[in-house]
Predict the 3D structure of the following.
Amino acid sequence: MSQESLSAMRQSVIDGAPETAAELARRAVADGIAPLEAINGGYVPGMQAVGEQFAKGQMFLPDMMASAEAMRAAMAVLDPELKTLGGERPVAGTVVLGTTKGDIHEIGKSLVGTLLSAHGFRVYDLGVDVSGEKFAAKALELGADIVGVSALLTTTMRNQKTVIEALEKHGLRCKVKVMVGGAPVTRRWAEEIGADGYAKDAMSAVELARNLMTQRTQLTSAGGSR
Amino acid sequence: MRPKLELLDRALVERILGEAFQLLENPGVRVAPYVFELLASAGARVENGVAHIPEELARKALASAPHEFYLYDRSGRPAVHYGGDDVHFDPGSSCLNILDWETQQPRPAQSADLIRLVQVAEKLPQYAAQSTAVVCNDVPQEMGDWYRLLLVLWYSEKPVVTGAFSGPSLRTMIDLLVEESGSPKALQHRPRAVFDVCPSPPLNWSEFASHNIVDLARAGVPAEIVSMPLAGATAPVTLAGAVVQHAAECLSGITIHQLARPGAPIVWGGAPAIFDMRAGTPPMGAIETAMLDVACSQVGKSLELPTHGYLVASDAKVLDAQAGMESGISAVLGALAGINMISGAGMLDFLACHSLEKLVLDAEAIASAQRLIEGIEPRTESLAVSMFVEAGLHGDFLKVKQTRALFRSEQHFPSSVIERGGPATEWAPKEILGRIRARIEEQVSGYQRPVIQTDRENAVVQFAEHQARKAGLDALPGLTAAAPLQ
């Protein structure tokens, strides 16, 4: 595949242009380009560039959301093609996300979900007002690697602990990493309730999820549990 | 002349209200089943949990909503006037954390922290009302709401800005206020508390918010709608668009409230903010957040409703220059806007952390803002000439009679927190935290708990003991913690 095409794919993600990203993906499929080459050589570097520019304060959340949308549009074309060829894009990890019981705020959680998807995670969003039992049931069903629990209110934040308790009750805590976030949530709170990590914003959540996956892999290889 | 800040011209206020009424009809407002019948029987179309409220119905509610009301202190005296351009301040509420006195790091708040905050706010005249400032982590969660209110009622003479996080909590809090007032009628007649009720943006009256606004109306206890559009995230990114959403959320709340009980006291309030597009946070100290508060209040005032806003808070993590700057600016803007109740003092870190020290520093900013809105008055028949007759060209105005007679009304005298000494050449100035702490110790040492009739106090304690036992607690932390209940 030409460097020019890969560069255009990368740029379509940086520009947050879903139509262009999808069109370039369709063209690649029509030209018989291996989907993984387009993904790893064009679109993923685009998302990486966006992440770097965001970290430098040169891009903002609406830009990042648009880039994630462009990434999603390209993947909607390339993923089915990949399956047809008998392959599958490597998944960075499976994440079950939701806002805790009693809390109907979803902006932060949705932002995290979008960015995780754009960075190769398989995300299942349970929505808002989600009980610990529902988190546990979905984590069990999907064989999730990570459960992410959001809370906006000081009162509902306490219910993040009930998610951890539900995972323990169902014997899943040793298999599933838990990350928490939301306006009132702090690192100290995360430690207090026994979560595995805390992210202060959506980009940090992506970094945290990657770190948790690394820890999980290392521990699994070492025969550990968490 | 009373200086006044307005950010919207008349035509823009009309456009904002016009679009807000449009939103009430379409897409409508999500509401809980608790209010379906109330709205439907009054002419709103309720389908799939969404109420489509005609402008006529909302305007009818506005016509029955009172333009003013008072909150009363513990002795039954009118203490806070909601209405007109009167301005009052109260500490921010419902914080989970407090900035620790020793470490200056946030930690979960306890009953003792709330008591200390109340004692200090009690001694500061800048705070016309108290608030249920922090969540007490040493009491069971299910009794947290009413317990915070109990402690504030117990340790303060002032009115209280409070709120409930569930329907059952609200019922208990109203019962507690009834015990304190003597009867439901006395509570309605001389309410000591106003309850914040928060719709969820955008345009959603959740299960417990729907319950609370109706139950407050029926109890005749003042309700304060705290609409919280987050411009760019849960509301339109433009400030004007977010003000429209705020208006629609308030109008829908007032409609539900006034249908439940026409004439019940209600406040056009809010905690709007912008959404920071880098950090994904709701910066309460941002200038645009303050602009939203001012504009939202202006729309409420155009309808002659009592108003509320959330200002004097900062996003700094400790008591630093950012904390002083952000809180000072918004205290001034809120006062100039004539917002009836301005909540938020003492708060840091996106309203996640309270600080006793900041509460004291904010009182100084508030005092300056209060002085500002007194404006410049011609206090003497001759503005300057007669004083020159006395002082002559020597200009010794310190000896002029009018200087002594008028300087107290012309100048605001800050407390020892504000450094006004001469140049620090020969002495080491005490840094701000030290000055604040000295002030706090002075306030607390002079604090005395106000008392009411013994029978009323006994009734409150008995009520609290009964409720606490139901939650499995055998003592009342902060009240009877030292001696377990019999």
